[in-house]
Amino acid sequence: SYELTQPPSVSVSPGQTASVTCSGNKLGDKYACWYQQKPGQSPVLVIYQDIKRPSGIPERFSGSNSGNTATLTISGTQAMDEADYYCQAWDNSHVVFGGGTKLTVL
Amino acid sequence: EVQLVESGGGLVQPGRSLRLSCAASGFTFDDYAIHWVRQAPGKGLEWVSGISWNSGSIGYADSVKGRFTISRDSAKNSLYLQMNSLRAEDTALYYCAKSQGSGIAAAQDAFDIWGQGTMVTVSS
Q1: Residue B100 gets which letter from DSSP?
Q2: Given this model, what pLDDT does residue A93 score?
Q3: What's the CA gap between A71 and B41, in Å, rounded?
Q4: Is B95 on the interface with A (CB under 8 A)?
Q5: Between 20 and 30 A from A11 (CA), which of A65, B29, B49, B69?
Q6: Which residues of chain B neighbour A52 with C-beta distances below 8 Å?
Q7: Which chain A residue has its CA at the smallest distance from B61's CA?
């Protein structure tokens, strides 16, 4: 079965750029999306179709997807961005989630 | 306001059954596929099942295939998950999530609306 691999944790200083990666075989040939989940809350879609931001998501969130890796980039990271981030893609009519990355802003 | 509200969770013994519901409002329910996604305590997200706008296409994760059944009722704007032969490993918070599209195999579709979840605990 298809697998998406994310680093368990990423740390970033306030105001700096955070990058969260998601790796999968030929992931660049698929669409990747990203969800943000804060403690005790439901996931929120922050990037879809590799690079698109839903309405209401700040411009500091951006995405890319090429080769075997999709990347979520948060520019000018704020304390409120501290959360778990999950990548997701479709494979063979099944939804696949990455294991999640805990982003710490310190 | 676009909203999904799950219900029906609870404590159930292994081998027993439970039926979850998800009530939708604020959007045209019949236009979109809807999915169930679960999250075990302290763990990541796991897709469970999805159903297309007209119930013509249905998909299940291998971990629940043959035990769980997804359905929807357009008259009630509701989604359901019938869970049979429950196991301890099914213990999780179950979310319903609205797809951006109408089918369940459209690779470009993400989940743009999520409910607050309903907790299912399988234990003797």
Answers
A1: S
A2: 87
A3: 26
A4: yes
A5: A65
A6: none
A7: A94
